[in-house]
């Protein structure tokens, strides 16, 4: 899954690189400057539905934060707010690339 807020062109270029290498890639356009609970849930649902193996975050801190939250939701289930606080994420992190 490609997580980018830097425009469709860059995300599409990255998708083409993955596909040229024989890999399937999904673009998640929900990397908002301040990701909402619903956008994180949407990203986690896309990740699971498309059987993704990793998340590629394109950009700075905001897409990275969104990607980490999507990864938590995809791996652990539930709503992202379920994981506020220390020690609430029980399953290890997903593979994430920046």
TrEMBL record:
Main EC class the enzyme belongs to: oxidoreductase
Family matches, as InterPro entries: ADH_Fe/GldA, Alcohol_dehydrogenase_Fe
Alphabetical keyword list: Oxidoreductase
EC identifiers of the protein: 1.1.1.1
UniProt GO MF annotations: alcohol dehydrogenase (NAD+) activity; metal ion binding
Pfam families to which the protein is assigned, alphabetical: Fe-ADH
Domain Alcohol dehydrogenase iron-type/glycerol dehydrogenase GldA intervals: 8-91
Family: Belongs to the iron-containing alcohol dehydrogenase family.
Protein name: Alcohol dehydrogenase
Organism: Methanosarcina siciliae C2J
